[in-house]
Amino acid sequence: MDPQDFQNLKENIKRNIAEVKSIVSDQNVLDPSDGSPFDRGIYLFQSLTRSMITIGNDIIIENDFRPPLNSADVFISLAEHKLISPSVVPGMKKAAMTIPRITNFTKAELVEIISDCMGNFSQCLSFYSEYFAAKKDGA
Length: 139
Fold this sequence. Notes:
This protein is an all-alpha fold. The chain has helices spanning 3-25, 35-62, 73-80, 89-98, 107-136. The chain has a single domain (3-26, 35-136), classed as Up-down Bundle (Four Helix Bundle (Hemerythrin (Met), subunit A)), CATH 1.20.120. The chain is 71% helix and 0% strand. Helix 2 runs parallel beside helix 5 (107-136).
């Protein structure tokens, strides 16, 4: 992934993070009569998680880091190489591990999981931005 491709993707990710935060912070998010915002939030959460994993995998492959054992391990590998802070790893791992089991959670549990992870998404995106900025500058 080149810096320009990342920059285009970054803007979409930032918008989606803001939308998900707005959806899960709405006091009526669990109102069964209005399921579409919640469903959209779940869709965006899944999409964001997959995007963050894909970007991380691209960085790992490009730098010939050890292959991740699973999607959650992507973030551990990046932290091992100091490309992201270890403080964001738990939230990013939680998101990655939630995706395959997403139907096993109640709506209330999903709201809590998503709320817990969104700050980590923003921080991880910032670390990715630093990486691609350095790459663009040839560092």
